[in-house]
């Protein structure tokens, strides 16, 4: 499975990060519009696993490693280089750092997103955060795989 930028199809992975299960749900995502690099966050409702989306495996791996290094948060990577990040060291969801620091990092994060996808027009992290919430319709991706909320069952993607 490979990302296809021309078709706006990007590889996405949800990685369980709380119980060392080794669960990794994989899928393809259309509409995120990244032209290069990878993004990831640990803000992924409701389980707050790690969700990674990118144009290539190397950047996806690098962004996941960086999130582990900072204890969770939001990271943008391109060509193996961290362009921006917000460390959310409390459960990968919040920080005790001063607001002005976080706002400054958020500004850098938006600039980095602009490098990956000029004129994006929406927040891809918000999209990723709710892609993993398997209680609102209709198709979601969890660490156990693709889930159809309307029939409340997993969708087999391979035979």
Structure description:
The mean pLDDT is 94. The longest helix is centred in the last third of the chain and has 18 residues, at 99-116. The protein starts with 8 loop residues before the first strand and ends in a 5-residue tail after the last strand. With 159 residues, the chain is an alpha+beta fold. The radius of gyration is 15 Å and the shape is globular. The protein has helices at residues 57-70, 99-116, 124-131; strands at residues 9-15, 24-30, 38-41, 50-54, 73-78, 81-87, 139-142, 145-148, 153-154. The chain has a 6-stranded antiparallel beta sheet, sandwiched between helices. It has a 3-stranded antiparallel beta sheet with strand order 7-8-9, with no helix packed on it.
